[in-house]
Specification:
Layout: H1 3-13, H2 43-53, E1 72-74, E2 77-79, E3 83-85, H3 101-114, E4 119-121, H4 127-139, E5 144-148, H5 153-165, E6 172-175, H6 182-186, H7 196-205, E7 210-215, H8 218-226, E8 231-234, H9 248-263, E9 268-271, H10 278-286, E10 291-294, H11 296-326
Parallel strand pairs: 3-10, 4-5, 5-6, 6-7, 7-8, 8-9, 9-10
Antiparallel strand pairs: 1-2
Helix pairs in contact: 1-11, 3-4, 3-11, 5-7, 8-9, 10-11
């Protein structure tokens, strides 16, 4: 099996959810929710891709960075690459034919682990979604990050503690950008924005790193740090939460600057949105991220090739990152700074 075969398999199975386009940029699937598209006009999904595309790199070849090191440590786990598998879930509501909820969770989490990194599992209006995440996380011996919807506080804390106790997760996340998610509303599940006191309560409720996914402004980043979050994910939910938001690569630098001033590097900064290659990973790192999340391409790989497909896709990105680091003079991830960006 190769990645071309994986994509063909996925295209045959995902006819109602995803076009499996040659370039996954949000144009062909604009407004297709349920499905893999961006909300409304699709502007936010498209902006993610465009924000990365406009960044250019400085090609450098006179140096001694011949063996770039892509390893990183996050939340107490040593990773082979600064690329994590994002939470992709909701098989029924998103019309993902050809795979079950449990198979999807196991593919993302298990395939990420095979590649030497961490995969995330989802939550949703269908109880089966979180059950699949718990099962896949437990099977991975806790080397996974369950991502829980911003439900009413008691229900949210119950899930956070279950992720810790039943699955042994190394960290937990709350995708606060799902505070008004269409798919949750379709299934009659209440989600809501969270206050700083509510975030503090969640942090106190679990002796694990807590990550807040869906931070798009410096103000929210500072609040997350003050509430005790161990990490944030700069994210607009893949362009599926609010139409007409900027691309994540555009807001990332200001968020990083705000956090470095407030939290002295204590809060890990992750980012998702339009990452489609190892070169895109390098750009996000140069803009200040500690690591990136990849969603839609891994969902395609999971449907087309299960855990092995996910492993192959992640390792392909890692190879591309290795080459990009070599051709920008970066021997380690610490060398990936704004200096690699042109202009």
């Amino acid at each position: 099996m190769d990645l071309l075969t994986v994509r063909k398999n996925a295209a045959d199975r995902l006819t109602r959810a995803c076009h499996v386009c040659r370039q996954c940029n949000g144009v062909a699937c604009a407004g297709q929710i349920p499905g893999f598209g961006g909300v409304g006009t699709g502007s936010s999904f498209i902006a993610n891709v465009e924000a990365l595309a406009k960044r250019k790199l400085n090609l450098r070849v006179l140096h001694d960075a011949t063996r770039p090191d892509t390893r990183v440590s996050l939340f107490g786990v040593d990773l082979s690459m600064p690329i994590l598998g994002a939470a992709v879930a909701g098989v029924r509501v998103n019309r993902m034919d050809g795979i079950t909820e449990l198979e999807l969770a196991k593919a993302i989490i298990g395939g990420s682990r095979l590649a030497g990194t961490i995969g995330m599992g989802g939550d949703g209006g269908d109880p089966e979604v979180f059950e699949a995440t718990v099962a896949a996380t437990a099977e991975a011996e806790g080397v996974a990050i369950p991502v829980i919807k911003p439900r009413e506080q008691d229900a949210l804390i119950e899930r956070v503690q279950r992720a810790r106790d039943a699955a042994g997760a190394v960290a937990v996340a709350v995708d606060v950008d799902a505070a008004a998610l269409v798919n949750m509303a379709l299934l009659g599940q209440k989600v809501e924005p969270k206050t700083i006191e509510q975030i503090r309560e969640i942090v106190r409720a679990v002796d694990r790193p807590v990550i807040l996914k869906g931070i798009m402004t410096p103000e929210d980043a500072v609040i997350a740090a003050e509430a005790g979050a161990a990490g944030i994910v700069v994210s607009n939910h893949g362009g599926r939460a609010l139409d007409h938001t900027p691309g994540t690569a555009d807001v990332l630098p200001d968020i990083v600057r705000a956090l470095r001033g407030q939290a002295a590097g204590r809060v890990a900064v992750l980012v998702d949105g339009g990452v489609r290659s190892g070169v895109d990973v390098l750009k996000m790192l140069a803009l200040g991220a500690d690591a990136v999340l990849v969603g839609r391409p891994l969902a395609v790989a999971a449907v087309g090739g299960e855990a092995e497909g996910v492993r192959m896709q992640l390792e392909e990105y890692a190879k591309q990152l290795h080459v990009a680091m070599m051709l920008t003079g970066c021997a380690s991830l610490a060398d990936v700074t704004g200096k690699v960006l042109f202009g």
